[in-house]
Amino acid sequence: MKNVLIEYPKCSTCKKAKKFLEDNKIEFVERNIVTQTPTIQELREWISRSGQEIKKWFNTSGLKYKELSLKDKLARMTDEEKIALLASDGMLIKRPLLVSDKKILIGFKEDIWKDLLG
Predict the structure, then answer these.
(1) For 22, 31, 95, 115, which has the most beta carbons within 10 A of its beta carbon?
(2) Does pTM top 0.90 for this prediction?
(3) What are 54-68's pLDDT values in tens digits?
(4) Architecture in CATH of 4-117
């Protein structure tokens, strides 16, 4: 599997991640998180492989997260309900995501990406 950059094209952090990959000659294919929202099955697999808690997968600074008052609701939801919610709207998912055979990176922090991508 190639590296897949799952991003929202208008997101400034996604643009930085894309530039980082290009500058470091790391091959990737792009996937728009809104028009090709990750499925429940993909999210289940990626969350498991990432080693991160599901709450780390939510875009907590996003308008949709705030509109739905998820800060209060997530604590009462099951993991399956959270995954279904993430799959229902790409704007709820923290971005960018970099998905490869070996790694799943959530959000973009250049120093972490540098370490993990070598």
Answers:
(1) 95
(2) yes
(3) 999 999 999 999 999
(4) 3-Layer(aba) Sandwich (3.40)
